[in-house]
Amino acid sequence: MTGDELTGGREDLGGFGLGPPDVDLDRVWLGVAAQVWRRCPGPVERAAARMLRSPGLARALMTTPSLLIGWVLATVIVLIAGVGVTLGTGAPWVGVLAPALAAAGIAYAYGPGIDPAWELSQSMAVSDRMVLLVRALAVFGLNAAFGVAASAASGAAAAVTFGWLVPMTAICALALAAATVTRSPNVGVAAGWTAWVIAILSGMATDGKFTTAITDSAFVVPYLALAVCCGAVVLFATRIPRGAA
Amino acid sequence: MNVELTELTRKFGHTRAVAGVSLEAGPGVFGLLGPNGAGKTSLLRMMATVLPPTSGTLSLLGRDPGAYGPRREIRRRLGYLPQNLGYYPGFTVVDFVEYFALLKDMPPKQVPRAVAAAIEHVGLGGRARSKLRTLSGGMLRRVGIAQAIVNEPELLLLDEPTAGLDPEQRVSFRALLRDFGQRSTVIVSTHLVEDIAAACSEVMLMDAGRIVFHGTPGELIARGEGHDVGDAPLERGYSAVLAAARS
Question: What ipTM score was computed for the predicted complex, to two decimals?
Answer without folding.
Answer: 0.88
